[in-house]
Amino acid sequence: MTRIGDWTLRRRVVTLLTVVAVLLIGLAGGEVALAAKNRTHIDAILNKTGPLRVQAQELLNALLDQETAVRGYAVSGNPADLTPYEAGRKREQDLVASMQRLVDDYPELRQEIRAVEERAEAWRQAVAVPVITTTQQSGTTAGQALVTDHAREQFDDVRDAVDHLQQEIFEARQRSAEDVLRTSNMLVVLLIAAVAVVIVAGSMLLVSLDKMVIRPLTGLADQVREVAEGDYQHGIDGAGPPEFVRLAEDVDAMRRKIAKDLAEVREARERIEWVNSQLQKQAEELTRSNRDLEQFAYVASHDLQEPLRKVASFCQLLQRRYAGQLDERADQYIAFAVDGAQRMQRLINDLLAFSRIGRLTTGFTEVDMNKVMGDVAGQTEAARQYADAELTWGELPVIRGEEPLLTNLLANLVSNSVKFRRPDVPPKVHVSARLVGDEWEFSCQDNGIGIEPEFADKIFVIFQRLHAKDAYPGTGIGLAIVKKIVEYHGGRVWVDTDTEEGTAIRFTLPALPEDVEAAAAAADEPATGEAVTGDGDGPTVEAGTGGAPAQADRRADETETTDGPDRAPEGGRTGDMRETVG
Questions:
Q1: Which of 157, 165, 235, 554 is the most buried (most CB within 10 A)?
Q2: In the chain, what is the straight-line distance between the N-terminal and C-terminal CA atoms, in Å?
Q3: Rounded distance, CA 440 to CA 418, Å?
Q4: CA-only gyration radius of the chain, Å
């Protein structure tokens, strides 16, 4: 048999709460029983004896109406004076029937009601009926002769019976009121007892908690505090219930593990400090390397360009001055030299442009991509005139970014579409945008030679070319610049390999929050004329005001044109170049 001192804290608390619960349940059961009795007594007062008192008074009034009506008829002989008599009898019968339903628990009241009815019926047979009959047959004088003192005494007996009934009802009500008072007092006593049980149990619980919980925990906390202050060799002892003893043992085991780990941490920190010093040296070396790269970029843009320009200039002088004076091979060698110098200049310029992306920043602003396309149209006008190319674009959104970089991005895509054209087909390039989720997906579609699916990723690698430089000029860095600009703006770029004709290069740029909210509202309640589609990732809305479909592909025969310094002619024809703005 275990001692109480060996009981766990849970067992002690459960035992105390069980005792308190049993006492409270017993008190609650007694209160419920008393409350039920109290409710019965209150119901008797409100729903039985109270209505009986009122109905007894109404019964007396009905009898008085009968007696008054009989006396009045004996005086006047008017049959109309008997109406209160008949109404009184009907009211008397209804009241007696109602009172009979309320006195099931009061047999003495039932007898009193029966006595009232017997005396009332005796009065009617002895007085009321003879007076009415005599008056009807012999006149008022004969009827009045029957209204004697004896007749009055008989009605007084009826009145006495009603008074006795009212007294019995009052006494029954008083008994019910006394029962209510008694049960209420007993309920108060039981509530006081329940409060006393709660107070005693709470006091015992507080004392027990102080002895079994607070003091052992305080001692344990003091020991843990000593360890926390740095004395990791201080042992921790437990006291109190078995749970606290085991807790102290676990804490002491944790202390020993912490002490062991702390030694390992000190060693690791020393190693980390050494690694940090090495990283600091590498960071300094990287900073120096970046400065060297910047210096190289400066040299490449200035010092390297100067000798290249000189070589190209003098080779071109040789080509112009001695063309035809030397042999054919010499002219070919001079042409190779001029071409090599010019290609080197283009490579250096493209490398500088590639290295400056994201490094020399002007900050993000809201950029109207329609204006950007106007600038792109102006930059590529000469190439499009030469190739008889047609450039169209749909209504484009406003995004946050760097306008020069975005102009460079679209100019590279349009130039590539014009460059890689089919020799027998006039080039057509169309730029559009649609909202997919929280991003704008742009597309540059052409009818050129296309790209094989296996080369879809290779074309974005710097200096990667799929054709010989003699077939298509260029350095092979344009799409690498496109990819770097898109990624700098937080998007991605890819080739749509499902295009049946030509090439479709798609890229994404983050949309403004208001555009995303407008698209969500349009998806919930599509407006008339609104083009809303779904691709599984969210609502897809063509770029345009309010999510309306972009009005693309207005052709060159449109009559309205708008010219400006920063935008090529829209909807019109310039030489052999067709340019349409949707």
A1: 165
A2: 95
A3: 24
A4: 56
